[in-house]
Amino acid sequence: MADEKMFEKFSKKLDGVADYVRTNTYRIDKLEAANASRFDQADRRFDQIDQNMEAIKSNIESIADKLNLMSNQFTAVAGKVMDNDERLVDIETRVVVLETKAH
After folding, report:
1. For the CA atoms of 12, 14, 20, 24, what is the dihedral angle to 10 degrees?
2. Rounded to whole angstroms, how far apart are CA atoms 18 and 103?
3. Residues of the chain with pLDDT under 70
4. What is the spatial distance between Cα 99 and Cα 84, in angstroms, rounded to a whole number?
5. How far apart are CA 29 and CA 17, in angstroms?
């Protein structure tokens, strides 16, 4: 009879422990699901940032190409200006020579 009471007592304690384990397992599963969801959200944000960075990189490369083109055009214009400046000096020199001959 004492053994039956002890068995019953241990059985109730074991049931309590089992309930405690089930409750905590449910809580852990719930926390894991919430953390998985947070991880998925962070992963999606990272992917979006990565895509945005690629778009920005592409835009920067496009701007750099346009700046190189403009730089080349500026160099070409500067060359023409220098050529025209040399011509202008030559013409001014001729004008001075003609004016001195005329006087």
Report:
1. -160
2. 124
3. 1, 103
4. 22
5. 18
